[in-house]
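Why should sequence recovery work at all? Because a backbone constrains its sequence more than one might expect. Tight turns favour small or flexible residues, buried strands favour hydrophobic ones, and helices have their own preferences. The token representation captures these environments compactly. In the example below, the structure is given first.
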């Protein structure tokens, strides 16, 4: 799993494994990602992956650090859907920094204290350099659905209240446990969580200075957040615009409800056939499609099941222990019980005149076939948020069990329209059916297509990454300068603070060393992304970064002094970057998400602290009888 990486048994093994795992995903950083084939030596099967999460989930991770990395990335992806590559890379870079400190004889408590201060410095830099989405060159009279590509992205010079409050939330909010650190004069305590659970922040309402709402140019914001996925972001913008047309209350176009967006993957068609359609598109078998054909030009009644549609399903409160088998001499007992339950459910559905059932879980094959014979369409694996959208639009009420249905739970007014027959020569008989609850539901389906079947998952991942970037940008009402500018600012201030003599230096004489090593980790990140663009060698990239840092004048308002390193063209005989691309067109401004980037940095450092503390306990042990033995323990 760790390739040719050599593990030194005399050192902290966990930190070394974390660094080795991070090295696997270097090629997935930045806007230019490389596809990887991951092959199973046992079965011979292979998987195509180009994102950090997909690479990790296809590896056989047998060590404890590998499982911790996997759980961390999964938890992050579930909420943010972007930034996992940066998270793992920085965890590896800062784990190497911690190893370097240990080799120099720096204690674990001093490492944790200084690295905690380092992340606070980075958070403060982000708070001061973030920009408001309301200042991105949008005139008050412009419509948010217009794509005026001629306008430039303009930075707002003032820090914004919303961003400050987002940052206050992100300075450690988990309540599972915390790391005890020496008292460093008001320094925050680093809060950690074993599973890196997310805490929902309260939405901040702001009162616009003008009487009319501030309109946002979503197309410009999206362009700066595309990060190389132009086609995917165009689909996101189209989905956002479709939602805004249906939602008359969103006059300022300041929200993007991703819970009402679904993707439908269609193999066999060229990628340029991708499109966005209103409603919820599902793929049905030939038998189910024949039922949908009967609904032409009709408004049907719908039942919403939040769970599985089977006689054995029980919600979590009544779930039986896994692995328990019941042995009985009456082999026909289970089938007769299922038949009795099925007859009861079908009779109830016919009595309520239900034509369509949407199920968040799975439906047993027998139930689907029986319903088809009675012209009732069953659609399974529907997202819970989609069920809620149907409930709001149709007046239906989601129930856990089909036997709970009554006339008050059944919704009405749903249309099911055949969109396209997708039967192929390979024997797959599928039909795409568009199910719409009617009204201004805001439901949108993004159709993703490709002739390469193995590429479909990557295209879907790219779309969701772009969708979540736009969603978080509109939610945060703030953006960070991208393409390395924010990291360069943080590097500059970490190096600057490392050279300062502060009052706490007596408590932590190694503060400067640790801060410099943290800055080196960010330099390594920037240079790796530059190398992945294919225009730089590792040495050239680090040289350019060093020259940029040398030209800095030492003030925080120096974002304009740093070039956006990843995308701008290089002059022939100079390492200084121009603000104009080689074809004479203005270089595109690149932005990063504020909340996502800070959460990525926090999780990366938390991961290092967890492994560092665990390694220390394994190597040195804990004497419970010694005074102060609990002082630097991490409580999980």
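From this structural description, the recovered sequence reads:
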């Amino acid at each position: 799993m760790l390739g040719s990486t050599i593990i030194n048994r005399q050192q902290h093994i966990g930190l070394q494994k974390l660094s080795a795992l991070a090295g696997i995903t270097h090629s997935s950083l930045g806007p230019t990602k490389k596809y990887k084939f991951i092959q199973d030596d046992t079965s011979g099967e292979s998987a195509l992956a180009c994102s950090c999460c997909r690479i990790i989930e296809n590896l056989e991770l047998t060590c404890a650090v590998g499982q911790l990395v996997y759980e961390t990335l999964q938890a992050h992806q579930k909420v943010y859907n972007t930034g996992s590559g940066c998270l793992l890379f920085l965890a590896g870079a800062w784990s190497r920094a911690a190893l370097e400190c240990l080799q120099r004889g720096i204690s674990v408590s001093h490492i944790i204290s200084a690295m905690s201060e380092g992340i606070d410095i980075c958070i403060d830099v982000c708070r001061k350099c973030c920009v408001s989405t309301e200042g991105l060159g949008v005139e008050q009279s412009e419509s948010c659905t217009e794509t005026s590509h001629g306008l430039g992205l303009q930075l707002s010079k003032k820090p914004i209240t919303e961003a400050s409050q987002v940052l206050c939330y992100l300075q450690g909010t988990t309540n599972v446990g915390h790391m005890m650190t020496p008292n460093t004069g008001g320094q925050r305590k680093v809060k950690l969580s074993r599973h890196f659970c997310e805490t929902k922040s309260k939405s901040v309402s702001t009162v616009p200075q003008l009487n009319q709402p501030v309109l946002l140019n979503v197309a410009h914001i999206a362009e700066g957040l595309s990060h190389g996925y132009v086609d995917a972001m165009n689909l996101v913008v189209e989905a956002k615009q479709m939602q805004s047309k249906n939602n008359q209350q969103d006059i300022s176009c300041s929200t993007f409800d991703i819970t009402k967006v679904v993707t439908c993957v269609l193999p066999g068609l060229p990628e340029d056939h991708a499109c966005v359609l209103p409603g919820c598109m599902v793929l049905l078998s030939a038998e189910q499609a024949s039922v949908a054909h009967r609904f032409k030009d009709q408004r049907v009644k719908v039942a919403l099941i939040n769970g599985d549609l089977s006689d054995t399903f029980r919600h979590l409160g009544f779930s039986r222990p896994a692995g328990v088998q019941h042995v009985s001499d009456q082999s026909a007992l289970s089938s007769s019980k299922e038949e009795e339950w099925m007859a009861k459910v079908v009779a109830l559905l016919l009595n309520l005149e239900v034509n369509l059932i949407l199920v968040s879980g799975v439906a047993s094959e027998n139930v689907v076939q029986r319903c088809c014979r009675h012209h009732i369409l069953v659609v399974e694996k529907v997202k819970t948020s989609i069920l809620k959208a149907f409930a709001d639009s149709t007046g239906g009420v989601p129930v856990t069990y089909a036997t709970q249905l009554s006339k008050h739970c059944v919704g009405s007014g749903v249309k099911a329209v055949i969109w396209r027959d997708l039967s192929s020569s390979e024997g797959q008989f599928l039909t795409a059916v568009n199910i719409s609850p009617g009204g201004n539901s805001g439901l949108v389906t993004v159709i993703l297509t490709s002739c390469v079947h193995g590429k479909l998952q990557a295209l879907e991942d790219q779309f969701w990454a772009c969708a979540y970037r736009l969603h978080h940008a509109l939610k945060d009402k703030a953006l960070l300068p991208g393409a390395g500018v924010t990291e360069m600012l943080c590097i500059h201030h970490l190096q600057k603070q490392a050279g300062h003599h502060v009052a706490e230096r007596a408590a932590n004489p190694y503060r400067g060393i640790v801060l410099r090593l943290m800055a080196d980790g960010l330099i390594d990140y920037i240079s790796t992304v530059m190398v992945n663009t294919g225009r730089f060698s590792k040495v050239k990239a680090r040289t350019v970064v060093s020259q940029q840092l040398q030209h800095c004048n030492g003030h925080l308002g120096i974002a304009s002094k740093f070039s956006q390193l990843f995308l701008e063209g290089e002059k022939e005989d100079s390492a200084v970057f121009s603000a104009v691309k080689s074809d004479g067109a203005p270089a595109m401004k690149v932005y990063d998400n504020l909340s996502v980037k800070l959460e990525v940095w926090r999780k990366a450092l938390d991961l290092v602290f967890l492994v560092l503390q665990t390694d220390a306990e394994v190597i040195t042990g804990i004497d419970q009888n010694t005074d102060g033995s609990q002082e630097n323990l991490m409580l999980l």
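A few observations help interpret the result. The chain has 17 helices and 16 strands.
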